[in-house]
Amino acid sequence: MEHVQAGIGNIKVTVYLTEETLSDLSGLAAYLDAEMKGANNNRMADTRGLDRREAAARRDLWELKKEQLRRAGQLFDSRRALVTAGLVQVIADRGWDHQDLPPLPGQARGRWVGSSNIGFSKHISVDLPADLVVRAKAGCHQFSRPATDALYKWRERNPRATPTRSTRPGCGPEEHAEYARLAALILTPGDIWRDAVKTGIAMAKVIAAT
Predict the structure, then answer these.
(1) What is the arithmetic mean of pLDDT over 182-196?
(2) Are 75 and 66 in contact (CB under 8 A)?
(3) How many CB atoms lie within 10 A of CB 43?
(4) Residues 152-174: pLDDT tens digits?
(5) Number of C-alpha atoms within 13 angstroms, CB side, residue 41?
(6) DSSP character at residue 127
């Protein structure tokens, strides 16, 4: 997976979660705060006695090092760090870190076809490294492409349907069943963000317990 330096760019992601997952995440708040204080007090962050140029270089170097540690799951100094570590792991587990994934087509931007937030009553927003977000979305698109293409054709056949609403206006039982079957085959970015949060929580808990 290509490496992007710290500060090169982030993308804000909204993650829809269950109440239980959000509670697990909130339970790590004190640990995350302690990690942040430790990072701020690290000797690499100390710029005392340095001139302006040297101090700036030292800060830049430490920011880069912190980002490397976050991606490696060795520094959990914020929610962003936790989700970043989890996302790196999820991408690696799916083998997307070494795949040559095609770029996203224009129609794949915006709300993901087949996506639904039903069952997830809570949400958080987090700025994640842009390269990880783009790679995760590309992986989702490649994995889901057959079902996604079928759903676009379904929408062409049912242009007035709103199958994700409880009353399912515009489509009958058979059409809704077909939609549900195809939607279940799609891996959405939302699925990946949730997996990243859960994975990051598990990783942070292991280190916090040592």
Answers:
(1) 95
(2) yes
(3) 6
(4) 999 999 999 988 887 888 999 99
(5) 6
(6) E
